[in-house]
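Re: that backbone. Tokens:
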């Protein structure tokens, strides 16, 4: 048997394995989407916290989707920035003008409360919160008008301490962002579904973290996560550690992909993977990053020339988990694997984009996927 034949069988096996994984993911998606949703007997007043840093594509539309909710109880939205010249302030003022009856608060506070700038921003915003149940949601998330009703229903059971949401991608900035959004819908989301279906994952996403006031106080408040790398995941772990469930209702919100260059798309693809590999008691320190750690929206990737302080270089992982003697060889191996993986990822996404065509019209707001419940 020659080398070509051997390689042929290897790639055939890999192809069948990939197809089998896709079928498994589809089964779990169908099962997840078929879950029943309860109804909240009462809708509690809510405060939504939105940490901001600068303007970005579709920011106004994303934020406005939270202002047009079909929700019978009072809703407060707190926006937070850390500098008085932040361009996001103009977006917030525009929303105030278009929705004069909305309960909108804007907090401008440069105070730092730890190494995670996003959490520092949230802590500063907490002083303006007027309701006991809060929702943390990233600025690049858009939702449907029934979003708050469904969140309230999922949060209603006594055993549930928090609610989080899965998300699909939609292109907000052209062709490159379309490829990036496809990565969210076709790579990230199926992986989440398989992890949930097999009981191997207990996620908590920054797209939505709705949490009851007593539960938040029981886990130490937001200040307990001021030095955490993956603050959203840590909040979920802390809630579960107190004996509560983190519910994931069977619908998806939309994550806006705003990458405009292939470098941005590649960095976006790698950021979550890097953070997922940091475990244990690893904590943030400004000295651990070759990045600008003054940014208040630590969940962002490299946009507008900034670096993401919550996406550390791989050396941070090695420092905490890998003996020094083995770091060099592992670093080279990991780098090689990462290059091969990303080449396949980009090739797959471009091929699928060419096969399906770039979304247009209303479909452009969300890359089509099997669980795109909100379009």
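Recovered sequence:
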């Amino acid at each position: 048997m020659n080398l070509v034949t051997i390689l042929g069988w290897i790639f055939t096996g890999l192809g069948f394995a990939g197809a089998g994984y896709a079928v498994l993911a589809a089964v779990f998606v169908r099962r997840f989407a078929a879950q029943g949703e309860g109804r909240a007997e009462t809708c509690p007043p809510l405060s939504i916290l939105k940490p901001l840093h600068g303007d970005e594509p579709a920011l106004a539309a994303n934020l406005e989707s939270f202002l047009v909710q079909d929700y019978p109880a009072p809703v407060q939205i707190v926006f937070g920035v850390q500098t008085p010249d932040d361009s996001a302030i103009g977006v917030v003022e525009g929303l105030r003008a278009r929705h004069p009856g909305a309960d909108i608060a804007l907090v401008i506070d440069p105070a730092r409360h730890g190494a995670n700038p996003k959490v520092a921003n949230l802590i500063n915003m907490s002083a303006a919160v007027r309701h006991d149940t809060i929702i943390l949601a990233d600025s690049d998330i858009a939702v449907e008008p029934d979003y708050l009703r469904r969140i309230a229903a999922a949060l209603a059971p006594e055993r549930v301490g928090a609610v989080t949401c899965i998300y699909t991608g939609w292109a907000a900035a052209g062709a490159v962002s379309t490829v990036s959004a496809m990565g969210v819908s076709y790579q990230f989301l199926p992986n989440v579904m398989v992890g949930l279906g097999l009981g191997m994952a207990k996620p908590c996403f920054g797209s939505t973290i709705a949490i009851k006031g007593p539960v938040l106080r029981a886990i130490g408040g937001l200040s307990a996560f001021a030095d955490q790398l993956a603050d959203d995941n840590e909040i979920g772990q802390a809630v579960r550690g107190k004996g509560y469930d983190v519910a994931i209702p069977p619908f998806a919100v939309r994550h806006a992909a705003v990458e405009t260059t292939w470098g941005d798309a590649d960095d976006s693809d790698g950021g979550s993977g890097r953070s997922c590999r940091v475990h244990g008691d690893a904590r943030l320190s400004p000295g651990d990053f070759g990045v600008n750690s003054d940014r208040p929206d630590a969940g962002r990737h490299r946009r507008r020339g900034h670096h993401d302080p919550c996406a550390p270089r791989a050396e941070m992982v090695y420092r905490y988990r890998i003996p020094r003697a083995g770091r060099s060889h592992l670093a080279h191996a990991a780098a090689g694997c990462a290059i091969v993986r990303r080449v396949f990822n980009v090739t797959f996404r471009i091929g699928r984009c060419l096969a399906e065509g770039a979304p247009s019209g209303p479909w452009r707001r969300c890359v089509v996927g099997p669980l795109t419940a909100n379009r």
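The domain at 43-365 is CATH 3.90.550.10 (Spore Coat Polysaccharide Biosynthesis Protein SpsA; Chain A). Confidence is low (pLDDT under 50) at residues 270-339, 358-375.
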